[in-house]
């Protein structure tokens, strides 16, 4: 089954073709991402109306380009998957409108995918994928969640952030120290030059039981440290390193607890912050110590992309799930409400 995947929930237009029945990474026939970062940079964050308009401009050319790269035409497609939520409503409607219209014109089924399920399943596109049950850490710009994955489509929320998401904390902290939007990757790069231990920030909510997170206090600690410092380049890098270490440690401590709670030794990491090198190394170390595995998608499939939507959609289409023809999106959507998937790849 060849499925076109369309992602337009925020500031990336992502398109991909996933073909089922091919081993490991071969299933991903083509994927392209157009990032709107430059468009939003001067505003310091995503402007929803500009995002929607840019998706309108870029989506059809990107679909043509992706199909060409896969050596296919629309006639080869057996289904269309798109991000139905959560996300910016106008941006979601662009993808949903195009996907449903295309599916209707081609007389193939369309399926709306939960963006976070897309992230969560992305590591399963890699070679030697993990089999549920496992624990997933979802760390993106909008979400920080620990999820028990009992089966594909059966998700139990173990813990989540009470305020800022991990990626949001990276972005806001970077902005405070004068780095351009989106600051997460830039802050991480800067931290590479930082001195370990010059700044030590709290590991929030690790001194009590539980699997929830809170990152807004950490952000304030960084703000105070930066404000009271000499604000030199080296200090900026040292603070970046202190902040990154605090976030990575906090996520790692909670992941260990979640593995204990779920009785598992397999942790799957997904979402934009999953591209962070230090987080990847730390979780790999923890999993190895337990005799288990830490599974990540390649960095380009950690951040928003159409491949994860094509893949998650293919699993659901194969299980016989699809939508009725009207165009509908779900800007706020609880992943635990999803129907299970009987797998047959
Ligand atoms: O999953 P994603 O692409 O979009 C959402 O669904 O939110 O995640 C984007 C987030 C941003 O906050 C970005 O700063 C963060 O992921 N991010 C990183 C890194 N790469 C992306 N944070 C820390 N280190 C990185 N290397
Ligand atoms: Zn995302």
Reading side by side through the largest sheet, how are the strands ordered? Answer: 3-2-1-4-5
Based on the structure given, which CATH architecture of the largest domain is correct? 2-Layer Sandwich
- Overall helicity: 40-55%
Could you give me the name of the CATH homologous superfamily of the largest domain? ATPase, nucleotide binding domain
Mean pLDDT across every amino acid position: 95
- Straight-line distance between termini: 9 Å
User: Which hetero ligands occur in this complex?
Assistant: 5'-O-[(R)-(carboxyoxy)(hydroxy)phosphoryl]adenosine, zinc ion
**C-alpha geometry:** globular
How many β-strand runs? 10
Describe it:
This protein is of the alpha/beta class and 345 residues long. It folds into two domains: 2-122 and 301-337, Nucleotidyltransferase, domain 5 (2-Layer Sandwich); 132-296, 2-Layer Sandwich (Nucleotidyltransferase, domain 5). Helices cover 41% and strands 18% of the residues. It has ten helices and ten strands. The strands form two sheets. Strands 3-2-1-4-5 form a five-stranded mixed beta sheet, sandwiched between helices. It is globular. The model has no long low-confidence stretch (mean pLDDT 95). It binds 5'-O-[(R)-(carboxyoxy)(hydroxy)phosphoryl]adenosine (KG4) and zinc ion (ZN). 5'-O-[(R)-(carboxyoxy)(hydroxy)phosphoryl]adenosine (KG4) is lined by residues 10, 140-142, 167-168, 170-171, 182, 184-185, 188, 271-273, 275-276, 303-304.
Pick out its properties:
345 residues, alpha/beta, Nucleotidyltransferase, domain 5, five-stranded mixed beta sheet, 10 helices, 10 strands, 41% helix, globular, binds 5'-O-[(R)-(carboxyoxy)(hydroxy)phosphoryl]adenosine
């Amino acid at each position: 089954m060849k499925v076109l995947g369309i992602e337009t929930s925020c500031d990336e237009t992502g398109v991909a073709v996933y073909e089922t029945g091919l081993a490991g990474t071969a299933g991903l026939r083509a994927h392209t991402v157009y990032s709107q970062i430059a468009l939003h940079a001067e505003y310091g964050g995503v402007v929803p109306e500009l995002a929607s308009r840019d998706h309108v401009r870029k989506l059809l050319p990107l679909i043509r380009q992706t199909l060409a790269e896969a050596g296919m035409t629309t006639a080869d497609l057996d289904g269309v998957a798109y991000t139905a939520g959560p996300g910016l409503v106008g941006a979601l409607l662009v993808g949903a409108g195009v996907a449903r219209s295309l599916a209707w014109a081609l007389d193939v089924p369309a399926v709306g995918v939960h963006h976070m399920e897309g992230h969560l399943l992305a590591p399963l596109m890699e070679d030697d994928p993990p089999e549920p049950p496992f624990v997933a850490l979802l760390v993106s710009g909008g979400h920080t969640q620990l999820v028990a994955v009992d089966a594909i489509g059966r998700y139990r929320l173990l813990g989540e952030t009470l305020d800022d998401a991990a990626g949001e904390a990276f972005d806001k902290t970077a902005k405070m120290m004068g780095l351009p939007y989106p600051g997460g990757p830039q802050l991480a790069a800067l931290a590479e030059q930082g001195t370990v231990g010059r700044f030590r920030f709290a590991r929030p909510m690790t001194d009590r039981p539980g699997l929830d997170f809170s990152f807004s206090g950490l952000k304030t600690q960084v703000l105070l440290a930066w404000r009271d410092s000499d604000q030199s380049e080296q200090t900026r890098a040292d603070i970046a390193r202190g902040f990154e270490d605090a976030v990575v440690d906090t996520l790692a401590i909670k992941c260990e607890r979640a593995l204990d709670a779920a009785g598992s030794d397999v942790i799957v990491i997904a979402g934009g912050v999953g591209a962070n090198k230090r987080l990847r190394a730390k979780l790999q170390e923890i999993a190895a110590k337990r005799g288990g595995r830490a599974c990540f998608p390649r960095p380009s499939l950690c951040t928003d992309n159409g491949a994860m939507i094509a893949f998650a959609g293919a699993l659901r289409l194969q299980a016989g799930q699809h939508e009725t023809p009207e165009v509908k999106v779900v800007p706020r959507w609880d992943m635990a409400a999803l129907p299970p998937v009987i797998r047959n790849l």
